[in-house]
From TrEMBL:
<comment type="similarity">
    <text>Belongs to the LysR transcriptional regulatory family.</text>
</comment>
<feature type="domain" description="HTH lysR-type">
    <location>
        <begin position="1"/>
        <end position="51"/>
    </location>
</feature>
<dbReference type="Pfam" id="PF00126">
    <property type="entry name" value="HTH_1"/>
</dbReference>
<keyword id="KW-0805">Transcription regulation</keyword>
<keyword id="KW-0238">DNA-binding</keyword>
<keyword id="KW-0804">Transcription</keyword>
<dbReference type="InterPro" id="IPR036390">
    <property type="entry name" value="WH_DNA-bd_sf"/>
</dbReference>
<dbReference type="InterPro" id="IPR036388">
    <property type="entry name" value="WH-like_DNA-bd_sf"/>
</dbReference>
<dbReference type="InterPro" id="IPR005119">
    <property type="entry name" value="LysR_subst-bd"/>
</dbReference>
<dbReference type="Pfam" id="PF03466">
    <property type="entry name" value="LysR_substrate"/>
</dbReference>
<protein>
    <submittedName>
        <fullName>LysR family transcriptional regulator</fullName>
    </submittedName>
</protein>
<dbReference type="InterPro" id="IPR000847">
    <property type="entry name" value="LysR_HTH_N"/>
</dbReference>
Length: 327
């Protein structure tokens, strides 16, 4: 608990990180100070500042925790102690990737936790120490404390109800006057952010009355004829039950693409990150890409997938579309 306070300098942040109430943290500190007969924290200032005695105790505990960590890692290296796996995956690929990752690593781990959500939520859980590795579409390039490994790149596509016939490929003008409104991702969703960046860059404006924060809902709206949308091919692969009611089109130029990364904290879980990258890349190569080819074959020339644990990029198709608009 003192180590967490030393990192966060906040009772509130420490309570979130440890999953206990703020009052419990305060009570533990007070009880410890009473037992030792010394003040560990200067309670008159914010953010939290340790007294000289508190700083000395924290330094001692940090050294001890590092020794314990090294000992436990030694046990793991000798297979005496199996590691736990705590991974976060963005919703758009979680359904497919999670199964293979768990199957591949299940026998090597003592406990596995899989969480899904938008990129910002997964990063928050990584920062709070509740996740070890995340797979998401935001590389968080402003964070120098993160290690990121490329996994997959795919273009955006236009999807419309099967009953709506558009030119191939449609123009933005065709879409604006096709008789159906656009269905957008919620702005908190990475797909929504990508779409808004694209429209702002192109000076486009569409009147929309429907927004969704997850793929299943957006695809259902499109399948039922409520509108058209921009999405990624992997979204359709995760929901094959909806593909029959949806027609896919190449999006008008410039084609916007998204990239997926495997992310962890610098200097932590590098071996695990490499294993997960290899496993996830094999899922894209063996399952996801062949399925995409059946309904959107033109997208393969925009795709790249990790060729190994270090994230080296391998073109999926001919590689003739190597520079789509990555937002």
């Amino acid at each position: 608990m003192l180590l967490s306070l030393g990192k966060t300098h906040s009772f509130t942040a420490t309570s979130r990180q440890l999953g206990v109430s703020q009052s419990s943290i305060s009570r533990i500190v007070n009880d410890l100070e009473a037992e030792l007969g010394i003040a560990l924290i200067d309670h008159s200032v914010r953010p939290i500042r340790f007294t000289p005695e508190g700083a000395a105790l924290q330094k001692f505990l940090l050294a001890e925790s590092q020794s314990i960590g090294a000992y436990l890692q030694g046990l793991r290296d000798k297979n005496f102690l199996q590691p736990r796996l705590r991974i976060g995956i963005v919703e758009s690929v979680a359904r497919i990737l999670a199964e293979r990752i768990v199957q591949s690593l299940n026998s090597e781990c003592s406990h596995i936790i899989v969480m899904t959500g938008i990129a910002a939520y997964l990063l928050q859980k990584l920062d709070e120490g509740q996740l070890d590795v995340i797979i998401c579409s935001d590389p968080f390039t402003n964070r120098n404390d993160l290690s990121r490994t490329f996994l997959f790149r795919e273009p955006s596509i236009v999807i419309a109800p099967g009953s709506l016939k558009l030119t191939t490929p449609p123009s933005w003008h065709d879409l604006q006057y096709c008789g159906l409104p656009i269905i957008q991702y919620h702005p908190n969703n990475s797909g929504g952010k990508l779409q808004q960046k694209l429209f702002n860059r192109l000076g486009l404006h569409f009147i929309n009355r429907l927004e969704a924060d997850i793929n299943a809902v957006l695809l259902t709206f499109v399948s039922n004829g409520l509108g058209w949308a921009l999405t990624r091919p992997t979204s359709l692969v995760q929901h094959p039950e909806l593909i029959a009611g949806i027609r896919s089109y190449r999006m008008p130029n410039p084609v916007a693409a998204r990239e997926l990364y495997v992310i962890s904290r610098n200097g932590e879980f590098s071996e695990l990150t490499g294993r997960i990258t290899e496993i996830a890349a094999s899922v894209f190569t063996e399952r996801i890409i062949p399925e995409i080819k059946t309904f959107a074959p033109w997208t393969l020339d925009y795709m790249f997938v990790a060729a190994g644990k270090d994230g080296a990029r391998r073109p999926v198709g001919k590689g003739i579309e190597s520079n789509p608009l990555v937002l």
